[in-house]
Amino acid sequence: MALTDITTRSTTLTAAARHPFSLRTLLSVWKSRRALAQLDDRALDDIGVNARQAARESAKPIWDVPATWRT
Question: How far apart are the first and last CA of the chain?
Fold first, then answer.
Protein backbone atom coordinates (compact mmCIF):
# COMPACT_ATOMS: atom_id res chain seq x y z
CA MET A 1 0.00 0.00 0.00
CA ALA A 2 2.81 2.42 0.80
CA LEU A 3 4.46 1.64 -2.54
CA THR A 4 1.25 2.54 -4.38
CA ASP A 5 1.02 5.86 -2.55
CA ILE A 6 4.62 6.74 -3.43
CA THR A 7 4.15 5.79 -7.08
CA THR A 8 0.96 7.83 -7.36
CA ARG A 9 2.57 10.87 -5.79
CA SER A 10 5.67 10.75 -7.98
CA THR A 11 3.53 10.43 -11.12
CA THR A 12 1.42 13.40 -10.04
CA LEU A 13 4.47 15.52 -9.26
CA THR A 14 6.07 14.64 -12.57
CA ALA A 15 2.98 15.71 -14.50
CA ALA A 16 2.82 18.98 -12.56
CA ALA A 17 6.51 19.64 -13.07
CA ARG A 18 6.11 19.25 -16.83
CA HIS A 19 3.33 21.86 -16.92
CA PRO A 20 5.09 25.12 -17.92
CA PHE A 21 2.34 27.59 -16.97
CA SER A 22 1.30 29.08 -13.69
CA LEU A 23 -2.30 30.02 -13.03
CA ARG A 24 -1.18 33.65 -12.83
CA THR A 25 0.31 33.43 -16.35
CA LEU A 26 -2.84 31.88 -17.81
CA LEU A 27 -5.06 34.49 -16.15
CA SER A 28 -2.84 37.30 -17.42
CA VAL A 29 -2.95 35.96 -20.98
CA TRP A 30 -6.72 35.60 -20.82
CA LYS A 31 -7.19 39.18 -19.55
CA SER A 32 -4.77 40.63 -22.09
CA ARG A 33 -6.40 38.90 -25.03
CA ARG A 34 -9.87 39.84 -23.84
CA ALA A 35 -8.78 43.50 -23.59
CA LEU A 36 -7.14 43.36 -27.02
CA ALA A 37 -10.35 42.06 -28.57
CA GLN A 38 -12.24 45.06 -27.18
CA LEU A 39 -9.94 47.78 -28.56
CA ASP A 40 -11.25 50.05 -31.30
CA ASP A 41 -9.34 50.89 -34.51
CA ARG A 42 -7.83 54.06 -33.04
CA ALA A 43 -6.45 52.22 -30.00
CA LEU A 44 -5.13 49.40 -32.19
CA ASP A 45 -3.39 51.99 -34.38
CA ASP A 46 -1.78 53.46 -31.26
CA ILE A 47 -0.17 50.13 -30.42
CA GLY A 48 0.74 49.36 -34.04
CA VAL A 49 -1.65 46.46 -34.58
CA ASN A 50 -4.34 46.16 -37.23
CA ALA A 51 -7.78 44.61 -36.64
CA ARG A 52 -6.85 41.33 -38.34
CA GLN A 53 -3.75 40.87 -36.19
CA ALA A 54 -5.73 41.69 -33.04
CA ALA A 55 -8.47 39.23 -33.94
CA ARG A 56 -5.94 36.49 -34.66
CA GLU A 57 -4.07 37.08 -31.38
CA SER A 58 -7.20 37.34 -29.23
CA ALA A 59 -8.55 34.08 -30.69
CA LYS A 60 -5.50 32.06 -29.61
CA PRO A 61 -5.91 29.63 -26.72
CA ILE A 62 -4.52 30.79 -23.38
CA TRP A 63 -1.70 28.24 -23.42
CA ASP A 64 -0.35 29.57 -26.75
CA VAL A 65 2.14 32.12 -25.43
CA PRO A 66 5.76 33.03 -26.12
CA ALA A 67 8.32 30.91 -24.27
CA THR A 68 9.48 33.97 -22.32
CA TRP A 69 6.06 34.22 -20.63
CA ARG A 70 6.25 30.72 -19.19
CA THR A 71 7.17 30.81 -15.52
Answer: 35
